[in-house]
Amino acid sequence: MANIQSIKSLSTADLLANKSTNPAEGSSTDFAQELKNALGNVNQMQVDGEKAMSDIATGSVKDLHQAAIAIDKAEISMKLMLEVRNKALNAYKEITRTQM
């Protein structure tokens, strides 16, 4: 059993003193680029899902299992993107309601 007395407590001042002055330090891409990449990935999954659906509809599907997976990936990625958008909009609305 671990000794609880050996755990050091941290104060807010300790955390602020250890905080890096440049939050982007060590990061090679910025937030806008990451967002653009994520949207590109979602778009590609949507294209793949639409192609899989058209292959199923025309009967030219080679692997039904892979087509179903592509469709599910497209659906889940779209739902995730919409949730991220909703959270970002809610955060923006909350910030604009904040009194200064």
What does this molecule look like?
This protein has helices spanning 12-18, 31-58, 64-97. It has 100 residues and is mainly alpha-helical. The chain has a domain at 29-97. Helix 2 runs antiparallel to helix 3 (64-97). The longest helix is centred in the last third of the chain and has 34 residues, at 64-97. The chain is elongated, with a radius of gyration of 23 Å. The termini are far apart. 5% of the residues are buried.
Give the H and E element order.
HHH
- State the low-pLDDT regions, or none: none
Task: Report the major sheet.
Answer: none
How would the global form be characterised? elongated
Mean pLDDT: 82
Given the structure, what is the number of helices? 3
C-alpha Rg, in Å? 23 Å
User: Considering DSSP H and I runs of 4 or more, what fraction of the residues is helical?
Assistant: 55-70%
How much of the residues is beta strand, in percent? under 5%
Structural class by sheet pairing and helices: mainly alpha
How far is it from the N-terminal to the C-terminal residue, by CA?
Answer: 49 Å
Record field, number of beta strands: 0
